[in-house]
Design goal:
The complex is a heterodimer.
Chain A: H1 17-38, H2 54-60, E1 68-71, H3 76-82, H4 86-94, E2 111-112, E3 115-117, H5 124-135, E4 142-147, H6 154-165, E5 170-176, E6 179-180, E7 183-184, H7 185-188, H8 193-199, E8 203-207, H9 212-228, E9 233-238, H10 254-262, H11 265-272, H12 274-296
Helix pairs in contact in A: 1-3, 1-12, 2-3, 2-9, 4-12, 5-6, 11-12
Chain B: H1 4-18, E1 22-26, H2 43-47, E2 51-53, H3 58-70, E3 74-78, H4 89-99, E4 111-117, E5 142-145, H5 152-162, E6 166-171, E7 186-191, E8 194-199, E9 207-211, H6 216-230, E10 234-239, E11 241-243, E12 257-264, H7 269-281, E13 290-294, H8 303-309, H9 313-324
Parallel strand pairs in B: 1-2, 1-3, 3-4, 4-6, 5-6, 9-10, 9-12, 12-13
Antiparallel strand pairs in B: 5-11, 7-8, 8-10
Helix pairs in contact in B: 1-5, 3-4, 6-9
The chains are: A alpha/beta, B alpha/beta.
Protein name (chain A): Dehydrogenase
Region (Disordered) (chain A): 241-262
Cofactor (chain A): thiamine diphosphate
C-alpha cells in the first residue's frame, strides 16, 4: 500500500481565499456529480477526484497561461483549478447547451484553450512531449497529469525516453493514490516510480504534503527549472482517493477508506480557520447548487462550428 | 527520369523548404543514413532539428507528431515498415483521428504518417504487409498511397490541407520504378485526381481495372498480356486517395470492373471500392465486380512462396479472363 507521511493536523501555510474557493468548488462539484448519478440524471460514467483536489489547486499557481495542460479520465479538478467554469464543465457532462465540447467529449474528453483531456491511459504523454518539443525555449511547458496505474502503459516510457533525450519542458504530475480502479498498486507495479524516472535520467520529486502552500514552495524552483533548462520532471504526489473509482464501485475494506479520509485536507482546513472556511464552503456549495439547477434546465447541446 | 523514391525525397525537400512549420520524425531518418529506403536523405543536413531520428517507439513517434500538429505546426512521421504502424494504432485512431471531432468542434491535426509498404522483396511476414485495410472507416482518418502518376508534393499539400491525420502508403518496390512512365503500349492522364491508364484509340475497354499505387506495374503487365495474347482491352484507374473512396471516373460504360488490392482478402480495400461502386453501377453491370486480393495467409520470406501469396500479373490476368468468361 502507499506510504504517506501522517498529515499535520494544522496546515503550516494559511490558504488564500482563491485557493480555498478552488478546493471547495471542486469538492462540491464532484459531490454533486455523485448525487446526480444517484438520481439517475447523468448518463455514462464519471471519475471523481475527491481527496485529490489539492494537487491541481497547488499546481495552478505555478502554471502560466501559455502552458499546455493534459488531463485524464479523473480530470474535473484539473480543469476547474485552471478554468473555474463549472457551468461549462457540467453542461459538457450533462450534454446541455453551453457545453465545453458540445457534449461530444463528456467527462473525459475536454479541449478548452490549452487544456486537453483524453480517456486512454498514457496516450497523452507522447502528445504532451510533442507539444513540449514545440514549446521548448519559449518558457512555457506541457504539464500532463497521470495516475499510478498509468505506469503500466508502454507509451509512458516511450515518451519519457524522448522527453529526456530531447530535453523538452514536460512536467509529469503523478497522482499516486495507491489504487488503479480496484487493483492496489502493490499488485500492479513492480519497483517504484522514482526508480523508473531515474532510469531515464528524469528528475523525480516526491510530495507527501497535502498543504497547498508547502507544496508550492517546494515545487516552484523545480518547475522554473523545467522551463529554463528545459528538462522533464516527474512530480509524484502520495495522495488518496476518497470516493469510488467511478460510481458505487469501491471494493476497498472500510479501514482503508477510513485511512484515506484521515488524510483529507477538508477537515484540517476547516479546523484551522473555522469561520472563513465555513463561509467559503457555504458559498461554493450554494454556487454548485445554482450551477446544477441552471444547467439542468438547459436544452440539449449540439456540437458547434469552428474552433 | 526520376525514381519514385527520389521524387518523394525531392517533394519532402521542397515542402520543408517552403514551409518552416513542417517537422519530420522517424527511425533512422537522419543523415547520413537518410531512412531505411533513403527517402529522407539530405533532410537533416539541411533542416537540422526539424528532422529527428527517433528511438524505436512507433506509438510515441505518432503521438509526438500529433502533439506538434496540435501545437500549431505540421508533422510528417515515417514508420519504417508499414507492418509497424500497428504499434501506433492507438495514437492514430484513438487520439489523432478522434481529436479532429471529439471536442465538439473541428480541431486541425495536420499529421501525415508515411508508411513504406508491401512485399515482393523477401522480407517475410512482419516486413511485407499492406495494412491499409485496418485503417479504413476510421472517423477523422484519410488514406492515401503514392502512385507513379501523382506528384508527391501535391499529395503532401493536399493531405495537410485536409487538416486531419492521413496515412500515406509508399510501396517499397514502387520506390525503384520511374515516375510518369507506363508500358509503351499505354498512355495515362489524370482525371479528377485519379490516374487513368488506357490504350490510345481503343474505345470502350473490355475490363476496367481499379488498383492502388503499389500494384500499378503488375496491373500494367497483366494488361499487356491480356491485350497481346488474349485480345482483351483493359483500362486502369489508380486513385491516390484510397479512403474515403473517391469518385472514380468513366465507369458508366464499363463492360466489367475488377478491383485489385495487394492486401489480404477479407475486410479489404477492394471490397470497400466495390461497395462504393455497386449503387452507382447497379443495373449497368453485367456481372459482379471481380475482387483480386492477396491470399488469406502470412507473407512468406522465400521468394517462390511469397510470390504465390501476393497478387501477381498472372493472377490479375486470370481473374480478368474468368470475369469475362
Amino acid at each position: 500500500m502507499i506510504v504517506t507521511a501522517a498529515p499535520a493536523r494544522s496546515p503550516r501555510h494559511a490558504l488564500y481565499d482563491g485557493d480555498l474557493r478552488s478546493l471547495l468548488l471542486i469538492r462540491h462539484f464532484e459531490r454533486a456529480l455523485l448525487r446526480l448519478f444517484e438520481q439517475g440524471v447523468l448518463s455514462g460514467t464519471t471519475h471523481t477526484c475527491l481527496g485529490q483536489e489539492y494537487v491541481p489547486v497547488a499546481l495552478s499557481a505555478l502554471l502560466r497561461d501559455d502552458d499546455f495542460v493534459f488531463s485524464n479520465h479523473r480530470g474535473h479538478g484539473h480543469f476547474l483549478a485552471r478554468h473555474p467554469d463549472p457551468h461549462g464543465l457540467l453542461a459538457e457532462i450533462m450534454g446541455r447547451e453551453g457545453a465545453l465540447c458540445g457534449g461530444v467529449g463528456g467527462s473525459q474528453h475536454i479541449y478548452h484553450r490549452r487544456f486537453l483531456s483524453t480517456g486512454v491511459q498514457g496516450e497523452s504523454l507522447p502528445v504532451a512531449t510533442g507539444v513540449a518539443l514545440k514549446l521548448a525555449g519559449s518558457g512555457a511547458l506541457a504539464c500532463a497529469y497521470i495516475g499510478d496505474g498509468t505506469w503500466g502503459e508502454g507509451a509512458v516510457y516511450e515518451a519519457l525516453n524522448m522527453a529526456s533525450l530531447w530535453r523538452v519542458p514536460l512536467l509529469v504530475v503523478v497522482e499516486h493514490n495507491g489504487i488503479a480502479q480496484s487493483t492496489p498498486t502493490s499488485a500492479q507495479m513492480a519497483g517504484t516510480i522514482a526508480a523508473r524516472a531515474a532510469a531515464f535520467g528524469v528528475r523525480h520529486h516526491h510530495v507527501t504534503s497535502t498543504d497547498v502552500g508547502e507544496i508550492r514552495e517546494a515545487l516552484a524552483p523545480l518547475v522554473d527549472t523545467v522551463r529554463a533548462e528545459p528538462s522533464p520532471l516527474v512530480v509524484e504526489f502520495a495522495t488518496h482517493r476518497l470516493g469510488p473509482h467511478s460510481k458505487g464501485d469501491d471494493t476497498r475494506p472500510p479501514e482503508e477508506i477510513r485511512r484515506a479520509r484521515e488524510s483529507d485536507w477538508y477537515d484540517r482546513y476547516a479546523e484551522a480557520d473555522p469561520e472563513r472556511f465555513a463561509r467559503i464552503d457555504r458559498e461554493q456549495r450554494e454556487l454548485v447548487e445554482r450551477v446544477v439547477a441552471e444547467v439542468s434546465a438547459r436544452p440539449h447541446s449540439r456540437p458547434g462550428g469552428s474552433a | 527520369m526520376t525514381r519514385v523514391s527520389e521524387h518523394i525525397n525531392q517533394a519532402l525537400h521542397d515542402l520543408m523548404e517552403s514551409d518552416p512549420s513542417v517537422h519530420l520524425l522517424g527511425e533512422d531518418v537522419s543523415d547520413p543514413y537518410g531512412g531505411a529506403f533513403k527517402v529522407t536523405r539530405g533532410l537533416s543536413d539541411r533542416f537540422g532539428s526539424r528532422v529527428r531520428s527517433t528511438p524505436l517507439s512507433e506509438g510515441a513517434i505518432a503521438g509526438v507528431g500529433a502533439g506538434l500538429a496540435l501545437a500549431g505546426d505540421k508533422a510528417i512521421v515515417e514508420i519504417m515498415f508499414s507492418d509497424f504502424v500497428a504499434l501506433a494504432f492507438d495514437q492514430i485512431t484513438n487520439f489523432a483521428a478522434k481529436s479532429t471531432s471529439m471536442y465538439g468542434r473541428p480541431v486541425p491535426v495536420p499529421l501525415v504518417v508515411r508508411c513504406p509498404t508491401g512485399g515482393n522483396r523477401g522480407y517475410g511476414p512482419t516486413h511485407s504487409q499492406n495494412p491499409q485495410k485496418h485503417f479504413i472507416g476510421v472517423p477523422g482518418l484519410s488514406l492515401f498511397e503514392m502512385t507513379p502518376f501523382h506528384d508527391a508534393g501535391e499529395l503532401f499539400a493536399r493531405m495537410f490541407r485536409l487538416a486531419r491525420p492521413c496515412l500515406f502508403f509508399e510501396d517499397k518496390v514502387l520506390y525503384t520504378r520511374q515516375m510518369y512512365r507506363t508500358d509503351d503500349l499505354f498512355r495515362f492522364e489524370l482525371v479528377d485526381d485519379v490516374a487513368r491508364v488506357y490504350l490510345d484509340g481503343a474505345g470502350r475497354p473490355d475490363c476496367t481495372l481499379i488498383t492502388h499505387g503499389g500494384l500499378v506495374h503488375r496491373a500494367l503487365d497483366a494488361m499487356r498480356t491480356l491485350l497481346l495474347e488474349d485480345d482483351l482491352v483493359c483500362e486502369l484507374l489508380v486513385p491516390a486517395q484510397l479512403y474515403p473512396v473517391p469518385r472514380l471516373p468513366g465507369l458508366e460504360d464499363a463492360r466489367h470492373v475488377c478491383v485489385v488490392d495487394d492486401g489480404t482478402e477479407g475486410g479489404s480495400w477492394a471490397a470497400e471500392v466495390a461497395t462504393a461502386l455497386y449503387p452507382r453501377l447497379w443495373g449497368r453491370l453485367r456481372r459482379p465486380i471481380t475482387l483480386v486480393n492477396s491470399a488469406d495467409g502470412v507473407i512468406p520470406a522465400a521468394p517462390h512462396l511469397e510470390r504465390e501469396v501476393l497478387v501477381q500479373a498472372d493472377s490479375i490476368r486470370a481473374a480478368v479472363k474468368e470475369g469475362l468468361s
